[in-house]
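hiii, so i know i said id send this last week but things got crazy w the move. better late than never?? heres the sequnce for the chain we talked about at the cafe, plus the structure i predicted for it. fair warning i was half asleep when i ran it
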Amino acid sequence: MTDDRRSPPDAAGSSRATTGLRHILRFDRVERTAHWATAGLFIVLMVTALPLYFVQVDRYIGRRVLVENIHTWAGVALPIPLLLSLAGPWGERLRRDVRRFNLWTDAEVRWLWSLGRRSIGQPDKFNPGQKLNALFTAGAIVVMLATGSILKWYRFFPLSWRTGATFVHDVLAMAVFIVVLGHILFALTHRDALRSIFRGWVTESWAQRHAPGWLAQHEGGVGEQEPSVRT
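okay and structure toks below
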C-alpha cells in the first residue's frame, strides 16, 4: 500500500517540499474504490427511483418491473463496497478515517452550533461538513436498506411496518437527492479536494490551508494518529 510520507520526485529527481507542491496521500486505492463504487450505486438508485416516484417519467421510460428490480438489487448491494473495504488488512486507512468521522473536537462542535461562523482552529483531515456528510451517508445506507427490504418483501411484515417504512423511505430519498446534489456541487467548487478522490493525493500547500491539523500530525511523524478529541 502506498506510503503517505513518500513524495514523488520531479523531473530533476528532487522533492518539491520547498515550493509547497509536495504530494501527500489523502486517499489510497481502497478508499477511492469504495467511494466510487458506493457513489455509482447511489446514482443508479437515484436514476431508477425517478420512474418509480413520478408517473411522467415512468411513462417515458417504461419497463417498470426491470427498473424496480435494478433499484432493489442496487440497494441490496449498496453497503457491500464499504463492508469489503473495511473487512481486511487492506482497509486500515479507511478504518482510521471512519474513526475520524465519529470523533469531534470542541472547536468543531462550536463551529456546528454557530452554523459555521466560528473558527475550527486547526482542521483535521476532514472538516465538520465532510464528517456530517459521511455520517449521513452511512445512516442513509442502513435506513434505506432496512425500509426498502420491508417494501420489497412486504409479506413478512405487518401493515404498520410497511406504512412506516414507506413514509421513511420516501422522505429519506428526498433528503438523499438534496445531499448528493449538494455534495457534487460542493466538490466541483473545490477542485483540489476533488482531485484527491481521483488521484489520491493533495499538495502540501493545500493541506496547510485546509487541514493543518492533519498535516502537523503527518509532518510530526505520527501519520494517521487521531487527534485529541471529544467523543
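btw The domain at 26-219 is CATH 1.20.950.20 (Fumarate Reductase Cytochrome B subunit). thought thatd interest u
miss u guys!!
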